[in-house]
Structure formats: C-alpha cells, structure tokens
Design a protein that fits this description.
Shape: globular
Number of strands: 0
Number of domains: 2
Strand content: under 5%
Helix content: over 70%
Largest sheet: none
Structural class: mainly alpha
C-alpha cells in the first residue's frame, strides 16, 4: 500500500527536477529559435563592432588632437567611404570585366597548366578528373560569369538589396565608435564596483588587440594588393586587378597558408600564358613576402596580436565551420583577445630548470636529471 502511494505521489524534489528540465528544454528551444530569427541582426551588430574597433586607432588619433570623438568617427568613416567610392569609380568596371573573363577562362587555364605539368614532368594527370573533383565545369563557370557580368544590372540589384543592411551596419558602427566611452561606462555599471576594474581591463584588451589586428591586416592587405597588381600589370599578366586583390586579402586574413593560397592563383594564371611570367610572379611573391615579414609587418603589427600559428589556423578552421566565411575572418582577433585576457588574469608559475631552455626556444644541453619522489 505504501509502495502504491509513493508511485502515485512523487516526492517534491522529483517534481521540481522534471519541471526544471522541461523549462530548460523550452528555454533552449526558444533561444535557438530567437537566435535563428535574429541571426542577421546579430551578425550586423558583430560586424559593426569589428568595424568600430578597426577604425578606433584613427579615431583616437584625431581625438587626441582636440577633435570631438563623434566628429572624429564621422571624418574617418567619410574618408573610408570616399576612398571606396573613388576606387570603384576608377576601377569598378575594369574589376567586373576582368572577374567575368577570369571565370570564363579558369577551366581552360587549369587544363593548360595540367597539360604543361604532364609534358614537362612526364606525368599522367587526368585533366578531366581533376577538373571534375574541383567542380570546374565549364558551363557552370560560364553561367556564373554571365550572372556576374549581366551588364551591371544584377550587381546593382544585389547592391540595392543590401543597402538597408549596409546602412544599419554603418549606423551601429558609428554609435559604437562615437559613444564608446559611454557604452563602456554603461556596461561597467552592470557589474559590482570591485569587478568594474576587471571589466574595464577586458574591454581595453579586446579593443587594442582586436582593433589593432583588423586595422593592421587591412593596411597590409591594401599594400600587398597594390604592389601585386602593379607587378602583374607591368609584366602583362591578364586579370591583374582581381588577382592582386585576391592575393592581398587571402595572404593577410588566412594565417600560415594564406601566402601560398594567395600567390598560387596568379602563378597558375601566369603559367598558362608563359612559364617565364610564372617564374617572375613566383619570384616577386617570395621577395615581397620577405620584405613584408622583415620590414613592413614588424612596423605595422608591432602592437597588435601575437598568437601561435597553429592556434591561428585552428581558430580560422573552427570559425569557418561554425559561422561560415565571416566566422573564419573574425576568428583570429576574437581568439587573440581571449588569449590576452587569459594571460592578463591567468596565473603562471616558475619553471623548473630543465624546462627553462624550452621556454626560450632552445634545446637543453644535458639530459634532465630524474626527479625523485618523496615517499
């Protein structure tokens, strides 16, 4: 009888447990639904924050010269918009035309390059199979090219469709930059007084590390794209403008292998025209990379992020898998900011003598003595 009564009336803790589980599942479902519904807005807000901290060094420089922060933000954004508009006014049609021609010529270029490899190195690569594995179907690429080059109508239509989102991004970015101190104080007010110093330091670390990374990469990408495009134009390589922009962006925003991915396409395109041109492009990329590594990059990125290449590459892969292309793009600065916060507030201990050479990147001179355990 007592057993039957226990099954009919479960204890209070069991009811509370199952109710909590049910409410947790409902909350997760509602949160997932809300996230998917607001994914576009969340992405715009995050990109606006990235944009605001990317222009922060220039805004701070103008603010230190006596200009109000709101006016400084407006001046920097206006200059960027004018520069972008001027670029597309001068090179927009050329860029679109070259992109269309590049898409149309890509299957033939790949085929010519593979034929040259087979002929030169006595290999037997199956050109059709390789093109199929990379989905380099001629009709598909020509269709894409025709869509890209449908006069300017399709591109203009796409731009018009994105005007509202672009306006939202710029508006949010303006207020995030112009009212950064007020926003910082408002967020800090949500924490108790003893935690406000920590919140302030975390904010500053994220701003300096993330903003410095984005700003420095943008500068290096512009420099790389300019010199690469100029060199390709001088030696007479077709599609020099999109190839130069591709090389600049990929080499700067993809860690470790970005230089090779960015430089491979110009080399392949040049190889289809002339092996001598391909050698010139390869030599230029190698020389420019050394100049960037030892001259440009240390000066521009001296105060920005510094994370291990393996961590940087892994963060890009993870960001791309979770959030697509934008996730891969912003993965490094986010991980760098997290790493900087951990280094600031994490606790480190003194290394034992056997491990100190490894900390300096040196090899130990003697075999470490076995550590005796106290019994």
């Amino acid at each position: 009888m007592a057993l039957r009564t226990m099954w009919r009336t479960p204890p209070a803790w069991a009811r509370a447990f199952f109710i909590s589980i049910f409410l947790l599942i409902v909350a997760l479902k509602l949160g997932s639904w809300a996230f998917h519904q607001l994914a576009t807005l969340i992405g715009i807000l995050f990109l606006a924050w990235m944009f605001s901290i990317a222009i922060d060094p220039a805004v701070v420089a103008l603010h230190k010269r006596g200009m109000r922060r709101g006016l400084a933000t407006g001046v920097v954004m206006l200059l960027m918009l004018v520069a972008t508009a001027a670029f597309f006014a001068v090179f927009g049609k050329l860029l679109i035309d070259q992109l269309v021609e590049l898409f149309k010529a890509l299957p033939g270029v790949i085929g010519q390059t593979l034929e040259w490899v087979n002929r030169t190195f006595k290999t037997h690569l199956d050109i059709a199979a390789i093109q199929s594995s990379f989905q380099l179907d001629t009709s598909k690429l020509v269709n894409i090219a025709s869509q890209l080059g449908f006069g300017l109508l399709s591109i203009v239509t796409s731009i018009v469709a994105l005007i509202f989102q672009g306006f939202m991004l710029l508006l949010f970015a303006f207020y995030m930059s112009a009212e950064a101190p007020q926003l910082q104080a408002r967020i800090a007010s949500w924490f108790p007084e003893r935690s406000q110093r920590v919140a302030l330091n975390v904010w500053e670390i994220a701003r300096v590390k993330t903003g410095g990374y984005v700003f420095s990469r943008m500068i290096l990408a512009i420099i790389s794209a300019f010199f690469t495009s100029s060199f390709l134009l001088v030696i007479g390589v077709n599609y020099w403008l999109p190839l130069g922009i591709w090389t600049g962006l990929v080499s700067q925003f993809i860690p470790t292998i970005g230089t090779y991915l960015g430089g491979a396409l110009p080399v392949v395109i040049a190889l289809a025209e002339s092996p001598f041109k391909a050698l010139l492009v390869l030599a230029f990329i190698l020389v420019y990379q050394q100049i960037e590594n030892y001259l440009l990059s240390p000066r521009i990125t001296s105060r920005t992020v510094d994370i291990h290449p393996a961590v940087a590459f892994g963060s890009v892969v993870a960001g791309g898998a979770l959030f697509g292309a934008w996730g891969a793009l912003v993965a490094i600065p986010v991980v760098a900011a997290i790493e900087a916060v951990i280094e600031t507030y994490g606790r480190r201990y003194e290394l034992i003598p056997e491990l100190r050479p490894a900390q300096l990147g040196e090899e130990p001179t003697d075999d470490p003595e076995p550590v005796s355990r106290a019994t």
